Amino acid sequence: MIHKILASQIPQFWDTIKFAVLNADNIAEKDRQLYLNQLLAHLLCDKAQCFVRSLNRELQAVVITRIIKDEITGENSLFISSLFSFKVVPNSEWLSDIESMAKFARANHCKKVIAVSNNPRVFEIANSIGFVERYRSFALEV
Question: Is 102 exposed, middle or buried (0-12, 13-18, 19+ CB in 10 A)?
Fold first, then answer.
């Protein structure tokens, strides 16, 4: 079962959150400190949210979200910016998790849940629980 961590609980989970996002988000070493500082600030003031899945008091997954506004339509979306699982779990559990996050999204007037990743396993999970691909992103170092 996934649940949202309160902003006041973030310091208690910060080391675990740092481990999860650094492993999930592929942040360059030179950018990590700024990235983590901004993430911590956003989590502490509820500009970002942290969801965790646990079973029998064992942490299984960390998900970081943000509520974003589409500049053209003005609609809110729940944006999943980081997803890290400490163990492989069935897609049925991810489906239950996304239903909980969708409930949170609806409560915050969001029309969509959007996720990004560079991990093929996340692609597989997203497709299996009903997400559809909208964009592909490419980068060229110059």
Answer: middle
Give the pLDDT confidence score for residue 90 in this predicted structure.
85
User: What whole-number distance in Å separates Cα of residue 77 and Cα of residue 92?
Assistant: 23
CB-based contacts of 53: which residues, under 8 Å, 6+ apart?
A: 1, 2, 59, 60, 61, 63, 85, 89, 93, 97
Q: Beta strand 58-69 with 48-55: parallel, antiparallel or unpaired? A: antiparallel
For 91-123, what is each residue's pLDDT tens digit?
888 889 999 999 999 999 999 999 988 888 888
Pairing of strands 110-115, 76-85: parallel
Beta bridge partners, 83, equal 63
**Distance of alpha carbon 127 from alpha carbon 122, whole angstroms:** 8
What separation in angstroms does the CA of 94 have from each of 2, 5, 7, 33, 97? 9, 18, 23, 30, 5
Domains of the chain: 2-128 (3.40.630.30)
